[in-house]
Amino acid sequence: MRIAIGGIVHWRASVPAWLEHLACLDAGEHELVPIFVMDRRQGSEAARTAAYHSFPDAIFVDVDGATPENFYPPKRENNAVAYAHLAMLRNRLAELALQQDADALLSVDSDIMAPPNLVGALASVGVPWVAALVRNSPHYLRLGCEPSTELADMYWNVMYMPPPQPGKPLYQHFKPIGSDGVGGVWPPGPICWRPHQKQQDRRLITGAVALYSRELLERVQWAGPIGTPYDPAGSQCLGEDISFGYRALEAGYYAWYVPLICEHRMGERGNTCPSFV
């Protein structure tokens, strides 16, 4: 399989380690084509230099439009602008993958450190949309305390969308089925259903580090806020990954995940899993 691999590059402290982990991925039987979308915000030249040093033969595309005011804005009311910008960047990455005649895109966000077997673990599932696991919003990052192993404190990138209901959230984060004292414990093997229920629920959404097939990229794009029958303004669906999941589900594509845990470096205290390099 010809797999375009890379992500959006905007400067953050994790970029050098992210590039190092990408360079250490085992391609196995697959052909990897490195691609990067350079977000032209403050510090992007440093990020470009680091990316070019690690992948001199990669394909780079520069995208303008980001400013400190509209990218990761501190005020909640501006989040829709930020997510719309991220959607534009992700669509540019997908477009670049298609231009390279790739069979799939393996998109890895620039604050995620993946283990060397990532490519094989995702490609072997053989589905249009599959992701690895990433710890998303540990409470200690907000509270300034030590990492928690309580299930109630574990938020991951795998979410599910129940049927829309008035007054109910559009999506909910999955929880691990247990804790080993260090992190979450997940069911083995590729999963496309809710781990805490026996019945299937194929309305999963996921992202951050995910493999998307060419067919899916040709039919579904990332977007800004998506309105629903009980939330016409889309206030519950701001995230570009959530809107992508909503659109993909409407197009008949189901998300899968594998219990392969990646490290998420969310700021100075964001190392929640061991380093793989």
Describe this structure in words.
It is a single chain. This protein is α/β, with parallel strands linked by helices. It has one domain: Spore Coat Polysaccharide Biosynthesis Protein SpsA, Chain A (Alpha-Beta Complex), CATH 3.90.550.10. Helices cover 25% and strands 21% of the residues. It is built from 7 helices and 13 strands. An 8-stranded mixed β-sheet has the order 3-2-1-4-12-6-13-5. Helix 1 (15-23) packs parallel to helix 2. The chain is globular. Mean pLDDT is 80; it is low at 66-77 and 268-277.
Q: How far is it from the N-terminal to the C-terminal residue, by CA? A: 25 Å
Please identify the structural class as seen in this structure.
Answer: alpha/beta
The unreliable regions are 66-77, 268-277
Number of β-strand runs: 13
Examine the secondary-structure arrangement and name the CATH architecture. Alpha-Beta Complex
Rg on CA atoms, Å: 18 Å
What percent strand? 15-25%
Helix segment tally: 7
Number of domains: 1
Largest sheet, strands/sense/barrel: 8 strands, mixed
Mean pLDDT: 80
Shape descriptor reads globular
Lay out the secondary structure.
Blueprint: E1 2-9, H1 15-23, E2 31-39, H2 44-54, E3 59-63, H3 79-99, E4 104-108, E5 112-113, H4 118-123, E6 129-134, H5 139-143, E7 159-160, E8 172-173, E9 178-179, E10 184-185, E11 204-205, E12 209-213, H6 214-219, H7 240-250, E13 256-264
Parallel strand pairs: 1-2, 1-4, 2-3, 6-13
Antiparallel strand pairs: 4-12, 5-13, 6-12, 7-8, 7-11, 9-10
Helix pairs in contact: 1-2
